[in-house]
Amino acid sequence: MDSIEFDAIIRHPRTIIHIDVDCFYAQVEMLRHPELQSKPLGVQQKNIVVTSNYLAREYGIKKCMSVEEALQLCPELALVNGEDLTHYRHYSAKILKILHRFTPLVERLGFDDNFLDVTSIVQKYMNSGNDSELNISINMEDEHPVGKVFGPSEEECPCGCHSRLIIASKIAAEIREQIYKDLHITCSAGIGHNKLLAKLVGLLHKPNQQTLIFPCSAAMLLSTIESVSKIPGVGQKTTQLLMSNNIKTVDDLRKTPLEALEKKIGIDLARKLKDNAEGIDETVVKPTGKRQSIGLEDGFKSVSLIAEVESRLGALLRRLTELAMEDGRIPVAMRLTVRKHDFNKSASGKRETRQCALPKHLLPSSKSGIYDHAKMLALAMKLFHRTVDVSKPFHLTLLGVAFTKFEERSSGKNSITSFLRKQVAVQSVLDISSEEGVSDINLGSPMSVNQDSNDGSAMSTTSSPISKPIGTNNQTVDDDVLNEIEPLPKKTRLEVWLSGRRESPSNEMADLRLSPSSPMQLSPKIDAAVLKSLPIDIQREVTRSWPTTSKPKSNNILKYFIANK
DNA sequence: ATGGGTCCT
DNA sequence: AGGACCC
Fold it and tell me: Where is the UmuC domain (predicted)?
């Protein structure tokens, strides 16, 4: 076959479904309060109605409207406090599980926004007429799409995407049906050949509906967008930048030469937006793995007393440690966030954060199984004193605390944790010692606390009342709490070694990433012998960590091959 | 704005 | 550590 012909045929190879839960918080609250089902309902956080059900929207209530304004529009509006996200997190996880029945290729944005790459399951349907692994059946005889279609659909694209998208519309309907059957939650869906189109087209018919777009209508859909700010990735700053250059619509974007745009907003963003303006978006669905951070925030009018800071942080930390236990992984770093009141401005000030390592003896040991809250609080207060000068008056409007790095809770002698702990010989082979003064980091007790290397910790792990002052007895442990607030080690030994490899000229990492079918394959220059000397499961753990420590350019097909933990 | 999150610089 | 973005 001619290569030109080949290029002409494979044009829209992917099939993407975007699933957007309708007014998610409001739906959850309607389930929790059935008596509010048929009433206009708003979900309130502080003085804001963050979302509302569709009945309330008929009154003109919009997202993030002030409570006063909302009540003026709809005096009978029922309000439910939605500051605690526990229930939403819960339903979000259930929805994700349902989506995973269809494909592991689910990317989540927030709690209620999901991309699914259904390319391969569509292919399965086309091959077999059904998918025995899924207990769903699709009427392949019907050539009509389910739901709405945006734009004309007379002529079929020669690449065959037409029928793929129609099958995907049936899958989307099945997904929405299963979510409704299991959870009584309604969703809207968009079906397209890329994420941009799937997301945008799904907005056209809501709630509880779905819309399909064929590639030939892509440019048309983008033209219907009134402002560039509706393009995902174009936020406030970029919008302002574009506006100041007289670029307001997608059409303005099209008229602006790429070179001119690059000078205004930067090369990467300019190229992305020029593509997007034509409905082109090659970014892949990146399966969402475990969270990179777990945090809680509390906003308020003003907090000016250290005692109140302490009590609020204590409350946040209690809930945060519960979330960490649910997650199952071991947090390694803590981050404190504050927002200081801004007097000269009407808006609140910017956030400031301070981060530090979480000393291992603050973590739940296998003996107690619980966090030492007094010491956690002492650590958080240390971070607080690093961000706020308490010798002067202060006025805070927000406090937040988060865990920001994790290690797997991997017991068992097959884990990389225990392997690295024992195999000092391997470390010397890897030759990663004394780079940039980080040589001793994480040598003795790199990860899990399950092995409990913390000798003599028994006396301090249990029964340490919250009220106990820090640093009055048990000098060694408390000194640790107070002194181990040095900045996080930049890199673990493994990471240092990996980054050293990455910067070597031939870039073996790329070779590795490009071998999806044989991920263990190495270029001859890499330390194959060393790697092969490791047990097979350790090899996997090591190679799995490579792509994340290197930097694949943001969105490309390599992401399909990068494990996501 | 709220109470979460992501990734990049 | 901050800044942009997402919901």
Answer: 16-235
In a domain, A548, yes or no: yes
| Residues near A303 by beta carbon (within 8 Å), at least 6 away in sequence | A309, A312, A395, A396, A397, A399
In terms of residue numbers, what domain contains A527?
504-561
- Strand C reaches within 7 A of the A442 CB: no
Provide, in whole angstroms, the distance separating residue A306's CA from nucleotide B9's C1'.
34
Residue A396: which CATH number?
3.30.1490.100
Distances (CA, A) of A484 to A364, A400, A423, A475: 17, 21, 26, 14
Is A24:A95 a contact under the CB 8 Å cutoff? no
Answer yes or no: do A346 and A248 share one domain: no
> What's the CA–C1' distance between A155 and B3, in Å?
47
Asked whether residue A248 is domain-assigned, the answer is yes
Same domain, A303 and A331: yes
Same domain, A546 and A461: no
pLDDT at A517 over 50: no
pLDDT reading at A200 higher than 70: yes
Q: How far is the CA of A400 from the C1' of C3 (A)?
A: 18
Report pLDDT digits (tens) over A294-306. Answer: 999 999 999 999 9
CB proximity A288–strand C (7 Å threshold): no
State the number of CA atoms in the 13 A half-sphere of A14 facing the CB: 23
Q: Which of residues 451-490 of A touch strand C (CB under 7 A)?
A: 487
Torsions phi, psi of A515, nearest 5? -115, 65
pLDDT digits (tens, 9 = 90+) for A111-168: 999 999 999 999 999 988 665 565 567 788 889 999 999 999 889 899 999 999 999 9
pLDDT digits over A366-394, tens only? 677 889 999 999 999 999 999 999 999 99
pLDDT at A132: 57
**pLDDT mean across residues, chain A:** 78
